[in-house]
Structures are given as structure tokens and as C-alpha cells.
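Input.
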Amino acid sequence: MYKDGETYMLVIEWDTGEKPDPDDLEQPETCGAYEYAEAVAPEELEAAIGGAKEEARDLLDANGSGWVSVLVGVGECVDDIDQDNAEQVITFEA
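Output.
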């Protein structure tokens, strides 16, 4: 999967599966995505994927429902990588 000279990003994307209540301003977010890490070498990428998988499982346990995915792809920001263009998608479901 690794291509020399590319910068890989790992993005963690999650959804609790719950519908947000527009009247509850204190309700925690029910979905989101954030950058987990960047990797520029094969060994960095391998280590980052291992760490992201562990964080994804922890997030899924904390949410108690829904799913969490680790997206791996070439990009410069979170918006560059999604389920359709990621080179690797690792998903955990509750």
C-alpha cells in the first residue's frame, strides 16, 4: 500500500447511530471525524495504523453504539480522505 514520497493521513470517523436532539444544547456530538496521524515512511504508517485501531476501539467502547472507522489515504487534511477514496478502511461496529 505504501508509495514512496507520499504523505499518508489517518482519519478516525465515527457515528454513534443516535439521532441528535436539536433542542438539547448539552447533548454530546453523535458523529464526527478527526485527524489521527500523518506518516511519511512505511514504519511510521504501520505504527500509526496500530495506534489508530486501538483508539478506534476505545472510542467505540466509549460511545457504546454505532461504528468507528480508520481511514488511511494520501492527503493533507481531514477533508481529503473519505470512505470512497481511502486506500484502506478499517471499521469496527458495536
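The first helix runs from residue 42 to 63.
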